[in-house]
Specification:
By secondary structure, the protein is an alpha/beta fold. Helix content is 31%, strand content 22%. It folds into 2 domains: 209 residues, Rossmann fold (3-Layer(aba) Sandwich), CATH 3.40.50.10330; 163 residues, no CATH class. Strands 3-2-1-4-5 form a 5-stranded parallel beta sheet, with helices on both faces. Helix 3 links the parallel strand 2 and strand 3.
Length: 402
């Protein structure tokens, strides 16, 4: 059986800061805070989905995967039992704590091994570490597991990453050419400035990524200045329609921040806030505090559904759930109604691509998929497709409104 050589780099703490209400997971203090609050690592779980999908599809084609990776949580634990795995340095007792230096070390060794493809699980910070080490020498593909996932080097979901990698390794593409790659941008934000709500994505370079437009996410695009009036008008109209004695969970984004400004409240542009009757109930909350604020006792809002989650898509990418708003958990999404808000220009910029949901819970994503009434302004809604980005749903959308 022909063997395909793939490198795997897992940043195990990627995404840990999301439900903890942080704006990333790079800093050690954030990791301590998240773990102390009881938030579990999800990056290894999501990375394993990619490798499972890759092994399955290669096996169906009569090919075998050999994984080259680091010990323990860097990737070795994932390969164990799934496929033949080569550890590029031995596991040492008590060394499961990893750092960016481990990512760069592993990337350099994979470059030396000249593997066919490097898969890395993380966010924009991990992408920068890979860029700094590998550059354009080897094709790479990101598995989205971080908080900040603004770069264009990531697949839409872990499963999509596995399918994309398998098709590329087997020489399949929509255009019939073998193993096509293209330069895709790596962008990132300074987390210190990001926590203060002051940062915007900066371009750091480009990586060579397997070509598959249907399974790669776009780079995040900023809201153009020309859309400012439309955003302000949308915010005014939304505030006029807010119900009394009803809580609104405002997710991150410029559009939801405009709703806060219209209310005269100091909401957080890149965090999650809870408002009711013109009052800021909770500011920049983590997942635990958000559930506590909404529950408010035995007859809380979660039980009575007297609350609505308000989210706006990431510009250029179209993600509504699962990118920078992990404080809003699958449990909350299954308990409360969701209202998407976006200007007509933001939807038009997607060029017909659907809005994406990637909560990490297949059942929740399936329930959210379909057609949503997106609030676009005074007395106006646009019915727009929402997709969960699963293999079976790609290219199709069921008719279901929420």
């Amino acid at each position: 059986m022909d063997v395909l050589r793939v490198g795997l780099i897992v940043n195990p703490v990627a995404g840990l800061g999301g439900p903890a209400g942080q704006k990333g997971s790079d800093a050690a203090d954030i990791r301590v805070t998240a773990r102390t609050a009881g938030y579990a690592m999800t990056s290894p779980v999501r990375a394993k989905r990619t490798i499972q999908q890759l092994v399955s599809l290669l096996g169906q084609a009569g090919r075998e995967l050999r994984l080259y990776t680091g010990p323990g949580t860097l990737g070795g634990d994932i390969g164990k039992g799934l496929c033949p795995t080569t550890l590029l340095w031995p596991r040492t007792a008590g060394t499961d704590e990893t750092s960016a230096a481990d990512t760069r070390r592993l990337a350099m060794l994979l470059k030396t091994e000249r593997v066919d493809l490097i898969l890395f699980a993380g966010g924009d910070g991990t992408a920068r570490d890979v860029l700094d080490t590998v550059g354009g020498s080897i094709p790479v593909l990101g598995i989205p597991t971080g908080v900040k996932i603004y770069s264009a080097v990531f697949a839409l979901t872990p499963t999509a990453a596995g399918t994309l990698a398998a098709n590329w390794l087997l020489g399949r593409s929509d255009k019939g050419a073998e193993r096509m790659v293209a330069e895709r941008e790596v962008v990132d934000m300074d987390e210190v400035l990001l926590r203060a709500g002051l940062a915007s994505p900066a371009l750091y370079g480009a990586l060579n990524v397997p070509v598959d437009p249907s399974r790669l996410q776009a780079r995040k695009a900023p809201t153009p200045a020309s859309d400012a009036n439309a955003v302000a008008s949308l915010a005014r109209a939304f505030v006029r329609g807010m119900e009394p004695d009803h809580a609104y969970v405002l997710g991150p984004g410029g559009t939801t921040a405009a709703i806060g400004r219209e209310l005269g409240l100091a909401t957080t542009r890149l965090g999650v806030d809870v408002v009711r009757d013109g009052t800021l109930l909770s500011s920049d909350v983590d997942a635990h505090a958000l559930e506590a604020a909404l529950r408010g006792g035995p007859e809380g809002l979660l039980d009575r559904l007297k609350a609505t989650i308000v989210l706006t898509p990431l510009g250029g990418q179209g993600f509504v759930v699962g990118r920078g708003n992990q404080q809003i958990t699958p449990r909350l999404l299954s308990s409360l109604p969701l209202q998407i808000v976006a200007t007509d220009a933001k939807l038009a910029a997607l060029a017909g691509r659907p809005l994406w949901v990637d909560s990490g819970d297949d059942d929740v994503d399936a329930r959210l998929s379909g057609y949503a009434k997106v609030f676009t302004g005074a007395s106006t809604h646009t019915v727009y497709p929402v997709s969960r980005v699963s293999e079976e749903s790609q290219g199709t959308t069921t008719t279901k409104e929420y």
